[in-house]
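Inverse folding, one chain.
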């Protein structure tokens, strides 16, 4: 068991989630380490020690972690065997490698929900395209690649037999299409003592073209009974994963008011960006409290909020320029987060804006205004 003071804590991955986690670390006595291949990544300049290396490589992750007190992830695609070894040698791993292993592959993740009787859409497993073609009776459905998909790229809607060709020729989950009313996410925090704290639900609204989160409202506008169900299910997911850490549970509410788990992220999550300004304790602060073994924080909202994602505009690839930034910075209670990525490309997550307002209709109006004013383009265009 390592016992440094200040504690040495490492993050696998150096994207924007790592960057925002490090912003919160500045309030604590902690020495931070980041492992990431790209030395210009969003988190590279906010940590005490940047280590260039592959988070998927056993030796690299093991050597990065062996002198740390604790380690966490900002992406699931890491070398879990190395985390197992680190954990067996006394490094605290948040979340436990076993929880990352269950979640990392969408097949084992869905089997976990089924086994634990956690409500989720019915599914079959398809090993390849030929096996998928046998599933005409299961349509309409959504095909999800087991491993390697991210930001909507590993998901294909298959409505009829003629669309089988869109499916994946690799082990995947074929999931019944849900007659969707709303999508929400619930973040649950669990500490070493198994105490929990739960954030108010956030309601997600998607761009039908990019399949990426478009904007999000929090707290979600849903009947109290549905919210209770969602919270109970999210807590059950966290409990059954049997690990400390932060878990973002994405849920579907169907047209009957039934609540189904879509997927879980065992880490800080896009659906919790707003908690930086809009909740007393942000999801990032919460994860430090968990890792540093401090009491859990207060998840209450200060004001209702919305998140607008800043995605690279279509037709623009190159050095990023933020058109309309002045107008947004003038808005009352708008908080701009740019992730420090030099290069933009269509659909790339370049930043987000959180907006807070007492009135939810006003939030929707402001979200649309931000979306249409602030554009990530290339300079000189
Ligand atoms: N069974 C389903 N029925 C209807 N829509 C779905 C279903 N599964 C996924 N989707 C839609 O596709 C989106 C992306 O799927 P998800 O499994 O969350 O993949 P990702 O890993 O890309 O986030 C969901 O947020 C939802 O809008
Ligand atoms: Mg998702």
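Residues assigned per position:
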């Amino acid at each position: 068991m390592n016992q440094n003071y200040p504690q040495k804590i490492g993050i696998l991955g150096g994207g924007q989630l790592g960057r925002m986690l490090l912003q919160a670390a500045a309030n604590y006595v902690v020495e931070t380490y980041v492992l990431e291949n790209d030395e210009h990544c969003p988190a590279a300049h906010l940590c005490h020690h940047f280590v260039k290396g592959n988070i998927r490589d056993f030796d690299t992750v093991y050597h990065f972690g062996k002198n740390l007190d604790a380690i966490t992830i900002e992406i699931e695609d890491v070398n879990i065997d190395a985390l197992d070894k680190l954990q067996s040698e006394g490094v605290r791993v948040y979340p436990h490698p076993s929880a990352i292993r269950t979640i990392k592959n969408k097949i084992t993740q869905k089997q976990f929900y089924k086994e634990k009787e956690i409500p989720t859409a019915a599914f079959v497993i398809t090993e390849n395209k030929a096996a998928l073609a046998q599933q005409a009776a299961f349509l309409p459905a959504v095909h999800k690649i087991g491993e390697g998909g991210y930001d909507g790229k590993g998901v294909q809607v298959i409505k009829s037999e003629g669309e089988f060709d869109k499916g994946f020729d690799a082990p995947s989950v074929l999931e019944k299409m849900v007659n969707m009313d709303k999508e929400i996410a619930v973040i649950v925090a669990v500490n070493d003592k198994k105490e929990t704290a739960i954030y108010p639900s956030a309601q997600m609204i998607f761009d039908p073209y990019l399949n990426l989160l478009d904007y999000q409202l929090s707290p979600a506008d849903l009947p109290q009974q549905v919210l209770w169900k969602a919270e109970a299910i999210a807590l059950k997911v966290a409990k059954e994963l049997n690990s400390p850490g932060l878990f973002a549970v994405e849920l579907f509410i169907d047209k009957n008011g039934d609540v189904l788990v879509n997927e879980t992220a065992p880490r800080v999550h896009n659906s919790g960006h707003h908690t930086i300004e809009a909740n007393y304790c942000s999801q990032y602060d919460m994860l430090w409290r968990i890792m540093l073994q401090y009491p859990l924080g207060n998840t209450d909202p200060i004001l209702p909020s919305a998140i607008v994602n800043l995605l690279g505009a279509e037709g623009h690839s190159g050095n990023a320029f933020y058109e309309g930034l002045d107008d947004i910075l003038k808005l009352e209670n708008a908080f701009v987060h740019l992730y420090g990525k030099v290069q933009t490309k269509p659909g790339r997550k370049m930043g987000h804006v959180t907006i807070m307002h007492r009135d939810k209709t006003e939030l929707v109006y402001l979200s649309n205004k931000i979306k249409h004013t602030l554009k990530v383009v290339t300079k000189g265009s």
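The chain has three domains: 7-94, 122-176, 180-378. The chain has a mean pLDDT of 95.
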